[in-house]
Amino acid sequence: MPCRGIRGATTASENNSEAILAATRELLEAIKTANNVQPEDIASVIFTVSPDLTAAFPARAAREMGWNHVPLLSAVELDSPEGLSRCIRILIHWNTDRPIFDVRHIYLKDAVRLRPDLNGEFVAPEPAPAPVEVQPRKNGAAHGSGLAVVAYQGEPGANSQEAIFQHFGAQTQTLACRSFDDIFTAVEESRATYGLLPVENSQAGSINQAFDLLLDHDLRVVGEVKFRVRHCLMALSGTKPEEIERVRSHPQALAQCDRYLRNHGWEPVPAYDTAGAARQLAAQPEPGTAVIASALAGQTYGLEVLEAGIEDSPDNTTRFFLLGREEPPPARRNKTSIVFATLHTPGALYNVLGELASRGINLTKIESRPRRNKPWHYVFYVDLEGHWQDTAVNRALMGLLTRTAFLKLLGSYPAAE
């Protein structure tokens, strides 16, 4: 598991135990809330204080908060004429799989001057205004070169946009689309290099519209992205939990936080998009209202994160297809996605699956959808291990051509780790 660094700083009103302990506790609580940090995941913590403060008190604050098994180090900074007075700095070494861009650094009180780019808020690194060059990734990400723009469905700050940053890097240029269909159009019209399409969630299951669009369009699946969804409760700055009456978000986000909402007695109110709910609340303040969205949405629209990681299941993961026009080269681990229809005869599906099973090809997913031009007939979406150029997979696909009413290769692509 990688070790991430969380940085932060604050200032104390005076050089005494009460002021330093209070300022340090506030900083630690803000870091803990913004990142959903658990003490058992912390490798070590380094405190430094300006020469006009006593170095022993920040570590004591951490111990009083229950960080009893965390290695702590305290030090006094060198005196500098340009240094910030009564300043407490912190560096937390955090064992986590969270991507770097999703780590929130906290700067409070006068210490916001140390990081004016953060404007006193905990935020991810800002994307650069220009697109970046996207290169193949060692873990099997999509192949590509040149300046890339990646289209996604939703408002800026949506989980899909966070998944793009996780996959390509925080400086990638993105294109927000109103609908799934608009993602395909953006790539087809060359307004985007790739499109990121959610196809299933580990809790809510498959996204049927996405699979229907894969059949309607001729884009290739060129990559696979798995994104760990972390929902945040957020509201207007200064809102207290006891003031909340209703919570707005996308129906899937509400469902994924159902137990949390019921425990608090809050009314769930559906919205068309998680980030859209955050944008609307920021633009049209409404007392007693909170939203569920990503921490990136909170940053984007200036909302305060009241609690992070509120999803009912810790295994809430969304799987995306990366769509493009050119096929990537084979990687170390590959998947192939196909869609087919069988003849309406006994044993037809059995015979199709036999072509795969007899060659030792493992299926990772099979999904049936109604065939829209033939009532009570179905098409089947299948993901299998291997690349279409592999001998076994290639021969199986040739065999499927003789056993299906139609067969479409959606793409062979590097499998997500």
Question: Can you characterise this structure?
Answer:
With about 425 residues, the protein is α/β, with parallel strands linked by helices. It folds into four domains: about 5-120, 60s Ribosomal Protein L30, Chain: A (2-Layer Sandwich), CATH 3.30.1330; about 150-230 and about 315-325, D-Maltodextrin-Binding Protein, domain 2 (3-Layer(aba) Sandwich); about 235-310, Periplasmic binding protein-like II (D-Maltodextrin-Binding Protein, domain 2); about 335-415, ACT domain (Alpha-Beta Plaits, 2-Layer Sandwich). It is about 25% helix and about 30% strand. The chain has eleven helices and 20 strands. It has helices at about 15-35, 55-65, 160-170, 180-190, 210-215, 250-255, 260-265, 275-285, 295-300, 350-355, 390-400; strands at about 5-10, 40-50, 70-75, 85-95, 105, 150-155, 175, 195-200, 205, 220-230, 230-235, 245-250, 265-270, 290-295, 305-310, 315-325, 335-340, 365-370, 380-385, 405-415. Strands 6, 7, 8, 9, 10 and 16 form a six-stranded mixed β-sheet that branches. Strands 3-2-4-1-5 form a five-stranded mixed β-sheet, with helices on one face. Helix 8 packs parallel to helix 9 (about 295-300). The longest helix is centred in the N-terminal third of the chain and has 19 residues, at about 15-35. The chain is elongated, with a radius of gyration of 25 Å. It starts with a strand and ends with a strand. Residues about 120-145 have low confidence and may be disordered.
Summary, kept brief:
The protein is of the alpha/beta class and 417 residues long. The protein contains 11 helices and 20 strands. The longest helix has 19 residues, at 17-35.
